Structure formats: structure tokens, C-alpha cells
From TrEMBL:
Organism, scientific name: Symbiodinium necroappetens
Assigned GO CC terms: nucleus
Entry's transmembrane regions: none
Gene3D superfamilies given in the database record: SIR2/SIRT2 'Small Domain (3.30.1600.10), TPP-binding domain (3.40.50.1220)
Entry protein name: Sirt2 protein
GO molecular function (one): metal ion binding
Keyword Zinc listed: yes
Keyword Ribosomal protein: no
Cofactor(s) this protein requires: Zn(2+)
Active site: residue positions: H146
Gene: sirt2
SUPFAM superfamilies in alphabetical order: DHS-like NAD/FAD-binding domain
Domain Deacetylase sirtuin-type: residue ranges: 2-299
Family matches, as PROSITE patterns: SIRTUIN
Signal peptide from the UniProt entry: none
Amino acid sequence: MKPRPSLDLAGTAEFLKSGACKSVYVLTGAGASTGAGIPDFRSPGGMYDSLRPELITATEAQRKRMRMDPVNVVMKDMFFQNQFPYLEVRRPFILGTQQQQWKATLTHWFMRFLEEEGLLKRLFTQNIDGLDYQTGISPELVTNVHGSLARVSCEGCGYEMPFDDFCAQVRTNVKDIYRTDPTAPAESSNINCPRCNAPLVKPNTVLFGSSLPSEFFEQLDDLNGADLLIVAGTSLVVSPANSVVMYVAKDCLRLIVNKEPVGQDLGIRYGKDATRDVWAGEVSCDEAFLDLIKMLGWQDKVRKIKHLLPESNQAMVKDL
């Protein structure tokens, strides 16, 4: 049996330092990137919430679908009928990713610190923003469960297109429905695949109605060897990514970093019913991981990279 730490953040830190914890797996969601100020498509005021279908290049029937449910913008069948809704809605996000408009947060850097300590075995991220890679984390340790904006390929033939080449065509071919870029074209035109000439080139994000990457399913069995599972910034309602919490062994410690308790329907237990689950409390991901960093004595790691953090995080660590 593994040593049983106290079921709080301090106990988790002691377990990480104890030498008994050798294998850490992580599942992250949108909350990991909140401190970066990156757009959250689903939150109130986000891109889906403020969607204006009348500005999107689409038929009236397609606009009706988007009014009924904005998620239709990223549905597979919609994309194969008409690529412009996806590209027009995500235009600023695609170009902002290329320009590194958003910076990796303390939460992203904590995963890099785990790797430096030889503890991180795998990071499953549901985020498509690619911010994890800004930290220099080893790409082979990262599974992009829902794909990534920073890689581009043809949904038809699979041809992979250089990201910078794709972004150049997004600038010249895709109109700006948010009306913030005066250099954007007045109307959208196709971005065709260099190999098959179909207008199906897009970032490697998983469209609703498509299968997740096969490596996600192949790697689930590895979770049985985890000593600690960290779940950060995710509501645990999106399947099958949320199944990660059920693949760890029954004696594996699970740290839930989210402003509210989640995953009770998946067997996570809080308070007096908890036997292996720790809730970090009503704090942001960045606040929780900063507390852990202090408990672990990793302040020097943060000092070395604090100039790379987003402004909101720099304010948090200025007295570190």
C-alpha cells in the first residue's frame, strides 16, 4: 500500500516530496488557461455566447442551426457542408495562437516543473490552445485530447499544412466577423488543400461528431500506474476525456483543482466521504498551484520564468 497522505493540499505536497510518489498524471481543461486571458468559447460572454450568425458566411438554414445551438459551428457535418463558419469564428484565435498573443500560466508551468523533477508521466489536455508547449514541456508527454490549433491538416486527405502558411491564408482569405482587423477581406474565400484541392484545411481540433485521437484511448491503460492524478480546470462533464479519473488504481490519490467540486457522478468523493480525493478549494488553478509551489519549495523555478508569465500571474508572484 502507498503511504496515505492527509487529504488536503499540504498532504499532497508532502506526498510529492516523499519519494513514494513517482508517477503523476494530469488532466487539464479550460480553467488551466483562464489566467492567460484566452477566449473561452463556452462561458457567458464567450465566442459561442456572443455569436452573431447573421455575420457568418452561411445559408439561412445553417444560420438557423447556429442560432439554435452555437456548437453547430464546430460540428463535423457543418464543416463538410461549409467551412466558413468554423474559420470565421476562430479566425482571431488561430492568428492569436500564431502570434503567441497568450502566455502560458502558472498552471502550465507547474506541469513543466513536474517534468523537471522526473514526476510527470503524461499530461492529458482538453485545451486546444497549445499553451503547454510554451513552457518547453516534452511534446511526447502531452496528449491533446481534443486536438490543437497550432497544427493544421486537411480533413479530407489528411495532408498536413505548415501552420504559418495556413495562417497567411487565413489573413487573406477569411473575413473578420468581429470587425477588429481592417486588413481582413470583405468576403471569405476557400483555403484549398495543396494535395487534394478540397477546401477542408483546418487546425487539428476535433470536430463534434469526430473520433478523438487514437493515442488517447491507447494511453488510458497507463493510468493504472499513477501514484497521483491531478485534475485541473475541468468540469469533468465532457466524455470520454472525463473517464481518465476512473482509470487510475483505487489507491491513487486524486487532486481536484477547480473552483467547485466536480466529478461526483464519476466516483469522486469530498469532505467526510473522501478516502483518496483532495479538493483544492474555491480558488483558481493558478492560485492553487502557486500554493503547491510554495509548499514544495519550488519558488526558484518560478523566479526564473516569471517574466514569461501573463500579467495576471506576474502580479501574483511579484513578492515571491
